[in-house]
Amino acid sequence: MTVVVLFRSPTPKPKEDEYHKVVLRENGMKPFSIPVLSFQFDNQQQLVQKLREPYHFRGMVLTSQRAVEAMERCVNDLISREVWKNTLRNDWQDKAIFVVGQATAKAALDKLGLESTGHEAGSAEALVPVILHSVRQGHDPLLFPCGNLRRETIPTEMEKAGIPLDSVQVYRTCADLNIEQSLEDLIKEKIFLGNGFFTQQLQINEDRFLLGMLSISQGVPSYAVFFSPSGVNFTAEIVSSFTKWWSKVELVAIGKTTEQAMKNKQWTVMAVADQPNPQALAQCIVKSMQCSDTAKGEEK
Question: Which GO terms describe its cellular component (predicted)?
């Protein structure tokens, strides 16, 4: 069975994580997740003030589930669900709510009750024309709750179009402190022991060169999937320390931006999911597997 390691941010709801896993399993893969990011929320009072004044804005741009989570925290802790549900939500829903990706759209609906536009856009670049089609030049800004690692695509394009953007940093992205241990434990326990390769627990201080050789001899794991540039940057040094495994694993990117971050590390990217959703990920891995099988067949 093809083993897929997902290097990703932690999901607020385990079911969402299972969603990826179920889709991959349906396609004959055995997935494992390793959280690589953690988040700290900032400027809650500033965000609350803006959420209380929807009449100052003509809409909102949400490019991540974490931005939605920051808003939800403000609603729960500083505004109240009742006030949000009875007044503010309706006021904001009368505005244009733009999102990147299906996951962000679902989070906005589930956590805030906000329907949105742009879920088919898998990146900030793809969302820009959606915004420009709906919004014209004017004085009232779009509210843009974002993280410390935000890209400048949307601010730059809005400035070019004469559309004001009110950006508020509402969270910071940090490296998960347990990436290294999680990967080591996964290779030792989940993959080896879980497949019956060993009858007793390997020692934690086992040589990584040996771990890599053992993983290759068993043919697992086959794919490593990266979901964001920050995930790439936070894990690059760690994954490369598992020398033999890392030299053989096939690398998959979620989106062009993540692909570029991987290429900047001189990594060879075998497949790219064009949308940040489970189906697109499964499809691109299956296609990569088929291409690999075809190439092997031609070599024989």
Answer: cytosol
**What letter represents residue 34's amino acid?**
I
pLDDT tens-place string over residues 162-188: 999 999 999 999 999 999 999 888 877
pTM, rounded to two decimals: 0.74
Contacts with 160 (C-beta within 8 Å, 6 or more apart), sequence order: none
> Looking at residue 177, what DSSP letter applies?
T
Burial 266-292 (b: 16+ CB within 10 A, else e): ebebbbbbebbbbebbbbbbbebbeee
Token readout for 127 is: 């969302």
Beta bridge partners of 167: 144
Residue with tokens 């990266």: 226
Closest to 8 in 3D by CA, of 182, 212, 126: 182
52-70 b/e with 16+ CB inside 10 Å = b? bebeebbbbbbbbbbbbbb
CA 122 to mean position of chain CA atoms: 11
Distance CA 6, CA 232 (A): 12
Residue carrying structure tokens 């590390």: 265
Question: DSSP letter at 117?
Answer: B
Instruction: Retrieve residue 99's tokens.
Output: 């999102």
Mean pLDDT value of segment 226-238: 94
State the pairing for strand pair 250-254/269-273: parallel
Are 13 and 39 within 8 A, CB to CB? Answer: no
Q: How many of the other CB atoms lie within 10 Å of CB of 98?
A: 27
**3-state percent breakdown (helix, strand, coil) of the chain, nearest 5:** 55, 20, 25
**Cβ contact 111:27 at 8 Å:** no
Q: What is the pLDDT of residue 30?
A: 84
